[in-house]
Amino acid sequence: MRIAVVAPSSRFSEEAAERVTAIAARTQPGVEVHFHPQCFLTHNHFAGTDAARADALVEAANDPGFDAIWFARGGYGSCRIAEAALARLGPAARDKKWLGYSDAGFLLAGLYRAGFARIAHGPMPQDAMREGGEAAIVRALAWLVAGSPTSLEPGLEPGRRHAAFNITVLGMLLGTSLEPDLSDHVLLLEEVSEHMYAVDRALFHIAASPAIQRVAGIRLGRVSDVKPNDPDFGESDEMVARHWCERYAIPYLGRADIGHDSVNKVVPFGAFGAL
Amino acid sequence: MRIAVVAPSSRFSEEAAERVTAIAARTQPGVEVHFHPQCFLTHNHFAGTDAARADALVEAANDPGFDAIWFARGGYGSCRIAEAALARLGPAARDKKWLGYSDAGFLLAGLYRAGFARIAHGPMPQDAMREGGEAAIVRALAWLVAGSPTSLEPGLEPGRRHAAFNITVLGMLLGTSLEPDLSDHVLLLEEVSEHMYAVDRALFHIAASPAIQRVAGIRLGRVSDVKPNDPDFGESDEMVARHWCERYAIPYLGRADIGHDSVNKVVPFGAFGAL
Question: What is the rounded distance in angstroms from the CA atom of residue A271 to the CA atom of residue A249?
Fold first, then answer.
């Protein structure tokens, strides 16, 4: 099995690549994790120019020699290339597995909208740099290589469709040509490094959107590294999520085991067990 | 003339109210600026509970003894009450002038969508606390009292319709029941206290929205107090705005004299000169 890593968002680090390569050699012998040279480019905030990032993604995705595309990291930048890059994908791209989260959600969304069947929200190579990050890499590889059930978010339900997103990323793609139809899906949401008032505002936007009101329900992942609020916001992440779900008659289905951390589990998009 | 001040968002200060009262007494004798007692409530992040903020807004708006509603300040909170409060407004509310900006944009949007004809984006009482803030209060009162042309954003064009919003606020109301039809409007946008990558992302969302692609064009107000980006984002506010306008074939019409500052000018919604 050959996995191609591309970096559609922020700058990636050689050190993370080395760690991932070592973990893969130890835990998945016979699997090649190929870091596209674009991963190590830098242009301002990004892992290379918009053109370089889009070209690398399209090249790897359309190469039948790769079995999976793994997004290197989040940060910011994939919305700048998503529409144009996805329009250039051919049949070999559709056969692959795709894995990422955070800013990569713009691409996951567009791929899912385009009918790609083998995409999932889960750990990325940069997670190797986290405390306890090796477990995240092992978990991601186990899903990429063998669809391991132990990698999956434990609350996924047979017979239901699922999707997972960062709250801000989902909000920023609603109404655009990247927005997938999430009707009847259980929607798992997580957030990191935002003020709680911004989380509240983003959940208003999401819950007040008619397309989201057609989901089967919302489960709340971790909302971590919340920035200080002065005065204190006075409501927890779960109070905020429950509030908006109740306000717009969306079933609130409890917590989810996803987030910007090393224990982030894998959530395949679509029907449970389809991959 | 009687102007009612209500605070649908963050906590307001007695000191700002005293300053505004003094400025009004000096520059607009005969005008009463009435600060609804709700302005001075506090509940967590907000100027009172959701119910208290909504009730005060509805009470003042439906009181025929007031000629105008002036939002006390921004911050955060109006999206939590906008839909429910606007549904309770009667004919006396429709006759009034309405003025505010920033977080109050959620309310301006919903009012404009509901066909209210006398609303504008412009300075609020809390601006009295800014350096040079007296000029902002004088400008706002001159528009509220007499529709003074000297208060207006200088680039507004006769024969065109206009609207103005904070970038984040507009993004967070797209697709909700607060979103007005901005077709053929010149859309003025401003931002404060965000990272440039977040401005870029929000402008993707706005420009990639089909409803916004029907505007006559976008003018960019000030993007101030930009939070540090590491690495540097490498593109200016105007580069970012031009990029997304070009990408989605929206005419970019240059800068606008609005922003989170004391020189923020008034932008009446709708046709120029209609008020």
Answer: 23
Strands B252-255 and A217-224: unpaired
A140, B123, B138, B234 from B263: Cα distances, Å: 52, 9, 11, 27
Task: Please give the C-alpha separations between residue A149 and each of A139, A188, A259, A263, in angstroms, as whole numbers.
Answer: 10, 18, 18, 15
Q: What amino acid occupies position A195?
A: H
Residues ≥6 apart with Cβ < 8 Å to B256? B153, B155, B164, B188, B189, B190, B219, B220, B221, B267
Half-sphere exposure of A59 (CA within 13 A, CB side): 15
Q: Binning pLDDT at 50, 70 and 90, where does residue A173 land?
A: very high
Q: Pull the structure tokens for residue B263.
A: 């020189």
What digits encode the pLDDT tens for the residues A113-147?
999 999 999 999 999 999 999 999 999 999 999 99
d(CA A73, CA A201): 26
Using CB atoms within 10 A of its CB, is residue A76 exposed (0-12), middle (13-18) or buried (19+)?
A: buried
State both tokens at A67: 């079995």
User: Model confidence at A231, in pLDDT bands (50, 70, 90)?
Assistant: confident
Paired tokens of A130: 């986290």
Q: Using CA atoms, how far apart are residues A144 and A126, in angstroms rounded to an integer?
A: 16
ipTM of this predicted structure: 0.96
Angstrom distance (rounded) from CA A170 to CA A164: 9
B79 CA: distance to closest CA in chain A (Å)? 7
pLDDT over 80 at B275, yes or no:
no
Distance from CA of A8 to the nearest CA of B (A): 14
Is residue B164 helix, strand or coil? strand
How far apart are alpha carbons A155 and A143 in whole angstroms? Answer: 16
User: Which stretches within chain A are classed as H helix?
Assistant: 14-27, 50-61, 82-86, 91-94, 105-113, 133-146, 167-173, 196-207, 237-247
B63 in contact with A, Cβ within 8 Å: no
**The pair of three-digit structure tokens given for residue A207, joined into one six-digit string:** 């819950």
Q: Which of residues 162-221 of B touch A (CB under 8 A)?
A: 168, 171-178, 197-198, 200-202, 204-205, 208-211
| Burial tier of B13 (Cβ tally within 10 Å: 0-12, 13-18, 19+) | middle
**Among B205, B74, B83, residue whose Cα is nearest residue A207:** B83
User: What are the b/e assignments for A3-14, b being 16+ CB within 10 Å?
Assistant: bbbbbbbbbbbe
**Is the backbone peptide bond immediately before B231 cis, with ω within 30 degrees of 0?**
yes
Nearest CA in chain A to B235: A44
Could you tell me if residue B228 is left (phi over 0), alpha (psi between -120 and 50 degrees) or otherwise beta?
A: beta
Identify whether the C-beta of residue A179 lies closer than 8 Å to the C-beta of residue A206. no
Backbone angles phi, psi at B274, to 5 degrees: -75, -20
Of B172, B211, B235, Cβ closest to residue A202: B172
Q: Can you tell me whether residue B270 is helix, strand or coil? A: strand
CB pairs below 8 Å between A and B: how many?
93
